[in-house]
Design a protein that fits this description.
129 residues; elongated; single chain; 8 helices; mainly alpha
Length: 129
């Protein structure tokens, strides 16, 4: 679906907005610095209650991209899920769930699986209570 309205600020500019906000600059000063409107800056800050969002990172026990590539190579070589799991020192159920949620044995691709995982990862709610 096409995005409606004007495109928002890039991630780099959003980081600049948060950096300037933390240093105590006003909305108008920040807006001038990133060539935007104060209302747009307010919208970015309001989304997180004026507190900069935490940097996203992987949980220690989640599969890495290299592990997903090993899964993909193992599947294309015709290896069993248990054999792949043994090589990665992971539970066979972990490998099975990973494959099932990312296209199945025939359609599993490591890069796509990794991107989908980031998209599905829990984030701070856009509408906090």
């Amino acid at each position: 679906m096409a995005q409606r309205g004007r495109p928002g600020l890039s991630q780099d500019l959003k980081q600049e907005v948060w950096r300037r906000w933390r240093s105590g600059e006003s909305l108008s000063d920040i807006a001038r610095a990133v060539n935007s409107q104060p209302g747009s800056i307010f919208g970015i800050l309001r989304l997180h209650g004026g507190i900069s969002p935490a940097k996203r990172c992987r949980a220690e026990n989640s599969l890495t991209l290299s592990e997903r590539e090993e899964i993909s190579r193992g599947l294309s070589a015709g290896r069993s899920m248990r054999a792949i799991a043994a090589d990665l020192m992971r539970s066979p159920s972990t490998i099975s769930r990973e494959i099932a949620r990312n296209g199945g044995i025939e359609r599993y691709r490591a890069i796509q699986a990794d991107e989908k995982t980031w998209d599905r990862a829990r984030c701070i709610s856009r509408y906090p209570i």
